Amino acid sequence: MMAQYFELTEQYDDALVLFQNGDFYQTYCEAAEEVARRLELTLTKREDSTGTYRMAGIPVDNAASYVEGLLDAGYRVAIAEQVEDAEAASGLVDRAVTRIVTPGTVVDDELLGAGTTNYVAAVAADEDGDSWGVAAVDVSTGESLVTGVDSRERAVEELERVAPSEVLTGPDAALDPDELDWEPMLTDHDPAVFASERARETVAAYVPNPDAVVAGDAELRATGAVLAYAEYTQGDDGPLAYVSRITRYDPREYLRLDATAVRSLELFETRGHSAGEPLVSVLEDTASALGRRLLHRWLRRPLVDEAAIEARLDAVEAWTRRGVDREAVRDLLSEVYDVERLVGRVSRGRANARDLRSLKETLDVVPGVKTAMGEVDAERLRNLRDALDELEDVRDLIGRAIQPDPPVEVTEGGVVRAGFDDELDDLRTTEREGREWVADLEARERERTGIDSLSVGHNQVHGYYIEVTKPNLDRVPDDYTRRQTLKNAERYYTPELKRREDEILGAAERADSLEYELFREVRDDVAAETDRLQSVADALAELDVLTTLAAVAVDHDYVRPTVGAADISIRGGRHPVVEQTRESFVPNDADFTDADVAVVTGPNMSGKSTYMRQVALICVLAQVGGFVPADAADLPVLDRVFTRVGASDDIAGGQSTFMREMAELTDILHNATEDSLILLDEVGRGTSTTDGLAIAWATTEFVDDEVGATTLFATHYHELTAIADEREAVRNLHFTASREDGDVTFLHRVAEGASSSSYGVEVAALAGVPEAVVERSRTLIEEGVPVQREDGRTTLDDFRGVAGGGGATVPDSPPGATNGRAGGGDDETAVNDASDRLTARGDADPPDETLREVAAELREVDVADTTPLEALNLLNDLRTRLDDRDS
Ligand code: ADP
Fold first, then answer.
1. pTM, 2 dp
2. Which residue from 623, 631, 633 is spatially nearest to 316, judged by alpha carbons?
3. Beta strand 95-101 pairing with 120-125
4. 3-class DSSP state of 122
5. Closest listed residue to residue 25, CA positions, set 50, 516, 65, 47
6. 45 forms bridges with which residues in the sheet?
7. Which member of 210, 301, 686, 827 lies 3.0 to 4.6 Å from 658 by CB, making a disulfide possible if both were Cys?
8. pLDDT the model gives residue 109
9. pLDDT > 80? residue 840
10. Distance between CA 226 and CA 580 in Å, rounded?
């Protein structure tokens, strides 16, 4: 047996082999130590003639959670099952790896979570590297995607969008984990599956003419590879029948949202520091797992085809008007099982009788859904209703064949209904009559023998027996044969009882295996209808999403957007997530009909980023086909949304934050078009004020002159607001706050023009900065200090020119040229600049020794290279010094 084990571990050397031995999956030697450690299992020993082996076992019945632990720990798991009946086998029981579980190819519901997608992907490129194929399969549902792009960068971007949990690194696309924004398992699978000819063969088993589905060699090779790998992991020698629809898409058919945008708009997950919810949480109150999965797909890929968007909007609108029917449909849909996964299991031959019943119960819902849909008035809905095949043949088959509440095991009987198969019925009748005969035997024998205490019983070892207590032994008839002697009684059988017993057992055994056979036939018959079942699943999923979007629209007071306008014009827009968490949310307009670029100023916490994101989210929602949180919205069809937000979040990324910021800016300036939406939340803050402002200024000009994209630019560089005076297409927006008794209240209301007052110091005070620092800041603003800059070029003699409030003093030319500091300086710019001076002033009168030191020390910090703990310690240290100084 150990030889068999070692052979398998060698054959599957990139996986952890779980070797079935009866009720346990065993691991041995080093693997056992690993498993015991990872899963906190007891390490035991196995001794046989060949030696002593460390051993750790996982119960077969309860393997899923352990397997999950191993996947989490980064293993692939090869499941080697006993493929022979242990009792029937002569000698060693044969074992074979029946499937390999990897993060991208898991199919177990327990490990997947309801309504999720889980892809494994492959990437391939042609020789010159200018045509790339990305293919992905969800092995649990059979969904399969392929696309082609023209550069490695775009391939990685497409991968990010699909976010597979496992990627095959083919011969021409070795991926570096550091370049990926998420953490898939990178699998180095047999490179042969990437070869063109082999790939063509693989794909041809799925679609009659591969060239009709995939375009070009790179796509073919990626598709072939990923399908071959899927087959390999499922232990199948042939194609996976339920992967019958390979969908090729062109990335240009969708609104492009790269990983940065998906993350910063918080579509699916919130970013580390944020306590809120992602957008999807507001929308995903779908009735079924099917709907949930589709909603995620839609959100990942909003449309750009106006007609398609309108078609979805029509359908959503129709449902907003028919509340009662909508809720009726949603009620019915909540009874729908995850048909996609069920069909996957049926087709892989892994569905049990309960799965078939679940399938039937889902199909039972369909006629009701169609009735509840009624006379639908949107074309999309009519198509859906037509696509809802009731599959009466399948329903009827399962209904006739499978018991309503069947056991999980399919080999032990109780699965197939009476009346479905004559032979089975006969066997069950024989069995039942036999048992009835036995049940009556006691009474008959008591009568015959006159022994009142005579009893008939059954046990596992001896089967049926007649028991007679010792005092009555003299009355035992001749035809009784002794079977077993107990302390107070003897047990007997008769030839007739023996015959009946054999008959009962034989019939039961044959019935069980016949049932299993029949069950498999039924399952195969259902599997043959995979395509129809998948179509029904698709239609139910879409109906679910459309009714859910309508319900969300009604519940939260969304409106239908007008899509196809030249410019964004939103009246009373709201942030779909923030409005759920705030007691009162202040709606804001966003009108880009007269200007492409808006420079947004206002103190921290005044609502700038919420505002910018809500504009983007409203556009995204509209292109998904949903209503939007606004009073009215005229929207263009965007090709892409770019975001450059909060560099400080990425400290852990390794790259210096400024470099990263500039890399993101590069991407935006190169790739944005006039149909794009750009959100810039601070640009150039990772460098000196002068450089930063110059870059921000030049960026704004470039966006206006060369790109023409709709752009929202939130900035602390108040000076930037001067551009609006020079350029038609640039305008200023600012967030207001009211200040009473030194306290700041944010109104969260956007207004035309640049902000005119500095709130930085008050915000600092609100945040708990020591009173002494706050007071000193106020004095500095009031009185100013003479400052000599390091380069000796500029001398500013006080803070007032910077923080003067009131109307902006506009620099004559871009600030980089003059190094000018002017305008109603915004809070942080002023503070930045103050520390500039404080450290730059050499040996002039120190405004405060401690402050100077603190500032100098802060400047020393290499943020990208500081651990959170070091940062905390430093913060504590600086704070203590300020406290000491105050006391
Ligand atoms: P900024 O980007 O200016 O620092 P944020 O957009 O992060 O400000 O918003 C700061 C806080 O104000 C957030 O907690 C947010 O919930 C709240 N907020 C933002 N906009 C609004 C609004 N329109 N109505 C109500 N609360 C808002």
1. 0.80
2. 623
3. unpaired
4. strand
5. 65
6. 54
7. 686
8. 82
9. no
10. 41
Count Cα atoms within 13 angstroms, Cβ side, for 15: 24
Rounded Cα distance between 169 and 249, Å, is 21
Q: Which residue has the tokens 């640009």?
A: 683
pLDDT tens-digit readout, 688-698: 778 888 888 99
- 807-811 CB contacts, 8 Å cutoff, 24+ apart: 807/756, 808/718, 808/721, 808/722, 808/754, 808/756, 810/722, 810/725, 811/719, 811/722
Angle between helices 379-387 and 306-321 (to 10 degrees): 80
Residue reference for tokens 């032994």: 473
pLDDT tens for 600-649 read 988 878 899 999 999 999 999 999 999 999 999 999 999 999 998 764 44
- How would you label 834-848 residue by residue, b for 16+ Cβ within 10 Å and e otherwise? bbbbbbebeeeeeeb
Q: How many CA atoms lie within 13 A of 824 on its CB side?
A: 16
Which residues neighbour 781 within 8 Å (Cβ) at sequence distance 6 or greater?
758, 761, 799, 800, 803, 830
Query: What would the mean pLDDT of 84-90 be, rounded to a whole number?
Result: 74
User: What does the block give as tokens for 749?
Assistant: 């209301």
Ligand 1 pocket check for 858: Cβ under 6 Å: no
Q: Residue 191: phi, psi to the nearest 5?
A: -65, -20
**557 alpha carbon to ligand 1 midpoint, in Å?**
20
Using the atom order of ligand 1, give the atom closest to the CA of residue 610: 6
Rounded average pLDDT over 432-452: 92
- Pocket flag, ligand 1, residue 609 (CB < 6 Å): yes
- At 54, which amino acid appears? R
Q: Which residues of 646-679 are buried (b: 16+ CB within 10 A; e: fewer)?
A: bbeebbeeeebbbebbbebbebbbeebeeebbbb
Q: Would you place residue 790 in the very low, low, confident or very high pLDDT band (cuts 50, 70, 90)?
A: low
Is 131 within 8 Å of 46 (Cβ atoms)?
no
- The tens digit of pLDDT for each residue in 380-420 reads 999 999 999 999 999 999 999 999 999 988 888 889 999 99
Strands 787-788 and 795-796: antiparallel
Nearest atom of ligand 1 to the alpha carbon of 588? 23
Q: Is the shortest distance between the CB of 643 and ligand 1 below 6 Å?
A: no
Q: How many helices (H) and strands (E) does the chain have?
A: 32, 29
SS3 702: helix
Residue with tokens 């070091």: 870
Among 658, 695, 682, 362, residue whose Cα is nearest residue 537:
362
Angle at 466 between CA 462 and CA 468, to 5 degrees: 120
Test site for ligand 1: of 631, 748, 827, 828, most ligand atoms within 8 A of the Cβ: 748
**C-beta atoms surrounding 92 within 10 Å:** 10
Cα 255 to its chain centre, rounded Å, is: 19
How many residues appear in the chain?
Answer: 887
